[in-house]
Amino acid sequence: MGLLSVLLAAIAAFAAGAVWYMSLAKPWMKDVRMPLGADGKPEGGQDPKVMVFGFVMHLLVAGMMRHVFSLAGIDTAGAGLVAGLGVGLFFITPWIALNNAYAMRPRRLTLIDGGYATLACAIMGLVLTVL
After folding, report:
1. CA distances from residue 100 to 31, 75, 92, 107 in whole angstroms, order as listed
2. CA 25 to CA 7: how far, in whole Å?
3. Does 68 fall in a domain?
4. Domain total for the chain?
5. Helix or strand or coil: residue 107?
6. Cα 2 off chain centre by
7. In a domain, 41, yes or no
8. Is the N end or the C end of the chain the one with fewer CB atoms within 10 Å?
9. Any long-range contacts for 21-26 (C-beta under 8 Å, 24+ apart)?
10. How far apart are CA 107 and CA 5, in angstroms?
């Protein structure tokens, strides 16, 4: 059951990312200084390998969260949701903020990426404890 819950948690968070970044695509592309073509889309298109890599990273996070939840005895939906929020908000988002600050990127980029990290980890935490 553990492997299935990790897989489903990664899929749910990845799907949330598709919605999140589709709705925030324009400000995100501006803030990362994405080179755009005349049509307003990224030059060269999207490399499918990036999506595969992204999903594998989701699997790693979900797998580690499951491990930590198991050790900590986090086994209810509410506890999983709150713990996931905490992971995203207090572990991942500060690291994103640090990287963006050193790279002199706009604060809005931290809000976009950190917001997604928090949402995705909350979803993972919920899925991991429901299954």
Report:
1. 10, 34, 12, 8
2. 26
3. yes
4. 1
5. helix
6. 20
7. no
8. N
9. 21/116, 24/112
10. 34
Contact 129, 21 (CB under 8 A): no
Which structure tokens are listed for 64?
A: 């580690």
Measure the CA–CA gap between 95 and 89, rounded to whole angstroms: 10
**Could you tell me if residue 39 is inside a domain?**
no
Contact 110, 3 (CB under 8 A): no
Residue 64, in any domain of the structure: yes
Helices first, then strands: H and E counts in the chain: 6, 0
Give the residue numbers spanning the domain of 64.
2-34+46-130
Give pLDDT tens digits along the chain (131 positions). 699 999 999 999 999 999 999 999 999 999 999 999 888 888 887 889 999 999 999 999 999 999 999 999 999 999 999 999 999 999 999 999 999 999 999 999 999 999 999 999 999 999 999 98
Phi and psi at 45, nearest 5°, equal 75, -175
Q: Is 88 left (phi over 0), alpha (psi -120 to 50) or beta?
A: alpha
